[in-house]
Amino acid sequence: MALFDLPLDQLRNYRSASVEPEDFDAFWAKTLQEAREYDLDASFEPVETHLKTVKVYDVTFAGFGGHPVKGWLTLPAWADTPRPAVVQFVGYGGGRGLPHTHLLWASAGFAHFVMDTRGQGSGWGGGDTPDPVGSGPAYPGFMTRGVEDPESYYYRRVFTDGVRAVEAARSHPLIDASRTAAVGGSQGGGITIAVAGLVPDLAAVAPDVPFLCDFPRATTLTDRDPYREIGNYLKTHRGRTEQVRRTLSYFDGVHFAARGRAPALFSAALEDQTCPPSTVFAAFNAWAHEDKTIEVYDFNDHEGGGAYQEAAKLAWLPQRL
Q: What sequence ranges are listed for the domain Acetyl xylan esterase (predicted)?
């Protein structure tokens, strides 16, 4: 697919038309307060992986509603003092997978905490965290689960899990809480942006080709899933457009980005029809911290920079941690 979105010079100045709810901060403060009424109860069980250069722990912590959420913590085998940490969130449909698929950050000397995504993990990278909360009628996938109301929307639970994942990672004695970064691609990038807007003291963030940004444009520009799930829901549930838009406004990465207080390294791909570049730039341009950079991959689709972007992060992140 050739370029389909705005030209790059316009992308660099593009601003979203997403309207922030007046009670956005109050909504999220209440959500996190309720989540913290449950003991974090983070546990770290050693796992035998037959890997010689890392130590791996099977993690369980209490997320939204006190529900158990899984993760992996991977540490350099030689680590005996607190390490800077990278907390990672995964893409749509995937789960935490197997420990040996997460070696990059520990190999670079970081503690690496990857969060399982509740209810996902059957599209790729198997997951181990159920979502015990039901919803009203939804289009297949996750984008419209509970979309009738912000209180019941699926990503309220996921974003809260993400905040609690940072708290769980920081609770481990071999993690330096003051040097914690959040990273992720696609859905993981969207969760990264949300967590950065809710956790004010992260040291750095790196969202790649992030999803869940600029819903008003994304849901009308691309006909690819997962954004298309919203259109297909509204195609059946006629007359609910404003109701759904109101719900989504509480979860739009643009509004979390406006609260981003950490240095940020974004990436965008100009042929990306899954997360169109204008929606990525909407979040990047709204990012509040002045130390922000975006890598642009001219002829790539949703794979974005791939290994090239990993190399960029390996060079960029140590300077912030």
A: 1-318
SS3 165: helix
Count other Cβ atoms within 10 Å, centred on residue 132. Answer: 11
- Sequence-separated (6 or more) residues with CB below 8 Å from residue 188: 88, 89, 90, 91, 207, 208
Q: What is the pLDDT of residues 152-210, one digit of tens each?
A: 999 999 999 999 999 999 999 999 999 999 999 999 999 999 999 999 999 999 999 99
* Catalytic residue ranges: 186, 272, 302
CA distance 43 to 70: 10
For 168, the enclosing helix (H) or strand (E) is helix 154-170
68-76 and 111-115 strand pairing: antiparallel
Q: Which DSSP letter does residue 99 get?
A: G
Peptide bond preceding 226: is omega within 30 degrees of 0, i.e. cis? yes
Q: Rounded to two decimals, what is the model's pTM?
A: 0.97
Gap between the Cα atoms of 89 and 121, Å rounded: 12
Q: What is the mean pLDDT of the chain?
A: 97
* Tokens (6 digits) for 177: 């809480």
> What count of other Cβ atoms lies within 10 Å of the Cβ of residue 161?
29
Give the SS3 label for residue 85: strand
Q: Whole-angstrom Cα distance, residue 130 to residue 289?
A: 35
Per-residue pLDDT at 1 exceeds 70: no
Greatest distance between any 2 Cα atoms in the chain: 59
User: What does residue 27 show for φ and ψ, rounded to 5 degrees?
Assistant: -60, -45
The Cα angle at residue 221 between residues 277 and 292, in degrees rounded to 5: 20
Count of H-run helices and E-run strands, the chain: 11, 9
